[in-house]
Amino acid sequence: MWLETESGTFLSGVHGGSTFSKFRGAIRLAGMKPIVSIVIPAYNEEDCLAEVHDRLTQVLSKLETAYEILFVDDGSADGTFERIRSISDRDPTVRGLRLSRNFGHQAALTAGLEMARGEAVITMDADLQHPPELLPELIARWREGYEVVYTVRKETSGAGVRKNLTSSLFYWLINSLSPLTIVPGAADFRLLDRKAVEALKRMPEKTRFFRGMIPWIGFKQIEVPFSAPERFAGNTKYSFRKMLRFAAHGILSQSAIPLRMATILGAFVVFVGFLYGLYVVWTFFTKPPGYQQGWASIVLFMLLIGGTQIFFMGIIGEYLARVFEEVKNRPLYLVAEETETDPDS
Ligand code: UDP
Ligand code: MG
Questions:
Q1: Handedness of CA 128, 130, 134, 138 (dihedral sign)
Q2: Cβ distance 156 to 227 under 8 Å?
């Protein structure tokens, strides 16, 4: 149930007891805890931040919902954190976190989720490719009872043929190689209910890939389509190499199917080898003594089987490297500093 008050709309029923104490509990809660947290990872995004903040504030102030905006500076080399600090000095709803180095988008998102205090947490990019104007719709869906409201990019202006092609190839690969279905175009722009956030916080894996973790956690989910505009300023932080690594990461962190493919292919090779063996034995007994053809087939088999073996050893190595990461159990990110904002202000 929602309570409408002059200072906003608050969720009631957080504290038990009579309606009156529920009401008082909700008001007290509003002072301490924002209802909606917006988490924004930013890596070298100094030119985007003021605009993101303006547009978010415009949208959120109309909603009459208590909120906080959390910027996570993922080890930027430019003035990103200074900008965050100056915005947060002016606006008490803004908090900022600076990671000690560049830990990557998914780690920065994790840092934001862990820091967020809202009953709902919305994650979005800092470059305005995730339009803040969509927030009312996400929040409305959440209020209808959906626990995960995820967005799907239907088109991206300015995305070249290469980005669209690699993106389609990626979703096709990951969906054929993984037991979960990831909706093509799913963006790291979504609203998560507190329950979903807590579920994600219980997943301590180092090889994080939110687009695969979200379908896994379940809960009541709904899709909201959107079309992504071009970046507001700056360049993409995902180079082609980073994107390839991200794609491999997505597949290998979600699925053991590539490992099973080795078993299946191995069984197939044994079967073919057996048939070919029968042919070799038959030739041995039927051809005249001294018959010695087969150089080409031997070399061919050696190359094929040797290549496949090395390829699958590489795949096992990739998994082993991920096991190594998990076993080391290092923290996902380190915080260097935080902006000082009185949480009760
Ligand atoms: N980002 C980050 N750490 C990184 C790379 C990117 O926090 O190492 C942030 C970046 O600032 C942006 C979001 O992740 O807010 C998405 O990055 P980008 O817009 O460059 O990716 P694209 O939209 O081109 O796929
Ligand atoms: Mg972007």
A1: negative
A2: yes
Nearest protein CA to atom 8 of ligand 1, as residue: 104
pTM: 0.74
Q: Which of 60-69, 72-81, 231-240 has the lowest mean pLDDT?
A: 231-240
Any atom of ligand 1 within 6 Å of the Cβ of 108: yes
Distance CA 16, CA 123 (A): 30
| Sheet of 94-99, strand order | 221-228, 148-156, 186-193, 120-123, 36-42, 67-73, 94-99, 335-338
Pocket flag, ligand 1, residue 240 (CB < 6 Å)? no
Closest atom, ligand 1, to C-alpha of 228: 23
Residue 44 CA, closest ligand 1 atom number:
11
Predicted pLDDT of residue 12: 38
Closest ligand to residue 237's CA:
1
